[in-house]
Amino acid sequence: MKPVIIRAAIANDLEQLDQLEQTCFYTDRLTKRRLKHWIKANNGIFLVASIENKIQGYALLILHKGSVLARLYSIAVSPDARGLGIATQLLNAIETAASELSKLYIRLEVAQLNKAAIQLYQTLGYKVFDIYPDYYEDHQDALRMQKRLIYKPQNLNTPFVPWYQQTTEFTCGPAACMMAMAAINPKIELGQAQELDIWREATTIYMTSGHGGCHPIGLALAVKKRGFHCELYLNQKQTLFLDGVRNEHKRQIMATVDEQFRLQADKNKLAIHQQVATHEQLQHFLEQGKMLVILISSYRFDGKKAPHWVTISGADDKCFYLHDPDPQDDEINHLACQYLPISKQDFAKMTVFGKGKLRSVLVISR
């Protein structure tokens, strides 16, 4: 039997890859343009399997920036080469490559009726953790499967957290709070009206550019107003988010808003702890059934040093898990924004914002 060569896809493979795509799939095909994109992209691993210089299969893994998660986006094997173990070789190679890039998890979607593929994934250690209805163009449901590459899965011991996508570029804070509140009380409405109401209550009015983001105290007050207990860990007393705001008039307005939020916090007896919440404390809060909304720097997600609010949806011995309300890439859809695993080492770097090293966490409970 001729040897199977597993290697990285190159530009000269494009025609063969396009032909293979047309042969293997009737719906949900990658276009020739997208295949060309992924051959060149630096946020993916694109491997091909060739026999005597003819491509008989490929596997494409998308790397989620700032995360230990990777997603198997597509895998294909020519009908003429099935039974040779090519899919297994591609998956083993892609897992090795992902591990070398410090990825701990691979997720994938597979048609619920594709029994052969499901059996292969299960044989290689992938576990079903969810079903996504009407996922494919032909309206088939998809099983969501995951494999942890390095260590055994742990029980997160946290309630189900629904995912909500922010509807504007400046409402990550309200979206994160809504997910946290809905995890505690499923009757909480997840919709734009409430999202914008919370933003109006919590906005700092100005940011470095665009609409104002949300102040930690403003978010905490909005959560408390909606009938939840909320405590705030905030390590700074000075006016927040002034880094990068050069206009003195805007700075003065932001200082006024900051002062008003602190006065409202006193009036409403909002508990503000002027300290950094440790990883041990965060994990303890989650074990108590409390939900956490935390401020991060988006730099590790999108290369922009912007404040961004996310929900902490779980923790185990190696990672914190996030619900991110803002998918940064159309190829990395909302499925990859739920229970997004972040190693605790990366999490520590991610949860510091600005020159003043701002840290803030909302602890929400019944």
Automatic annotation (TrEMBL):
According to UniProt, the name of this protein is GNAT family N-acetyltransferase/peptidase C39 family protein
What is the species listed in this Swiss-Prot or TrEMBL entry?
Answer: Catenovulum adriaticum
InterPro entries (UniProt xref) = Acyl_CoA_acyltransferase, Ard1-like, DUF3335, GNAT_dom
Residue span, N-acetyltransferase domain: 4-150
The record ties this protein, via PROSITE patterns, to: GNAT
Keyword hit for Acyltransferase: yes
Q: Enumerate the UniProt keywords alphabetically.
A: Acyltransferase, Transferase
* Highest taxon above the source species: Bacteria
Q: Which SUPFAM superfamilies match?
A: Acyl-CoA N-acyltransferases (Nat)
